[in-house]
Write a structure and sequence with these properties.
The protein is an all-alpha fold and 198 residues long. It has helices at residues 2-62, 69-84, 95-119, 123-127, 129-164, 168-175. The protein has one domain (2-167): de novo design (two linked rop proteins) (Up-down Bundle). It is rod-shaped and about 95 Å long.
């Protein structure tokens, strides 16, 4: 009888320790997931800031006589596409949706880059204070985007590590926590751009 009570007590203690540990692990996963969502919100805020600057930039550039309309249309179309793709926190575990978002943002970055390169051919435009101010704001926003993406990737790395490590992996599988997708560098980003002078 005494051995049975000791055995029952040990079993209850083990179950209690496991339950207490599981609650702590679950709460840690929730905290990490919320950090990922917060960092994603920071990324979206910076992308929205860039999208908000573009109409002003396009309006300023349109004021330049016979500025290349094709370039302006490409920027406007890329902005429309980039702002039409919205990801929720649950989409962050879908690599295909994340890639769609990144492709749209990279397309917008490329169109903006072409606009700024083409603007080199318009000294009168580059001399205007509003164009210079917008260019500085855009450069600052690109830096903020890079920082927000870096912080997001750090939060995702921490969260994904917790989801994959024991006992987090067991709790994550039971409760439905899924790995999140990080930002990856654009293809060809490892090669320095070629600069040609005419």
């Amino acid at each position: 009888m005494k051995t049975g009570l000791i055995f029952l007590g040990v079993i209850v203690a083990i179950v209690g320790i496991f339950a207490f540990s599981s609650v702590g692990t679950y709460n840690g996963l929730v905290e990490e997931e919320e950090m990922v969502a917060q960092r994603w919100g920071d990324v979206e805020t910076q992308y929205q800031r860039r999208a908000d600057l573009i109409p002003n930039l396009v309006s300023t550039v349109q004021g330049a006589a016979d500025f290349e309309q094709e370039t302006l249309q490409a920027v406007t179309a890329a902005r429309a596409r980039a702002t039409s793709i919205n990801l929720s926190a649950s989409d962050l575990s879908d690599p295909a949706r994340m890639q769609e978002f990144m492709n749209a943002q990279n397309s917008l970055s490329g169109a903006l880059g072409r606009l700024l390169v083409v603007s080199e051919n318009y000294p009168a435009l580059r001399a205007t204070e509003s164009f210079r101010d917008l260019q500085v704001q855009l450069e600052g926003t690109e830096n903020r985007i890079n920082l927000a993406r870096r912080d997001y990737n750090g939060a995702v790395r921490s969260y994904n590590t917790r989801v994959r490590q024991f006992p987090g992996s067991v709790i994550a599988a039971i409760t439905g926590f899924e790995r999140r997708t990080t930002f990856e560098s654009q293809g060809g980003a490892d090669k320095a751009p070629q600069v040609e002078f005419n």
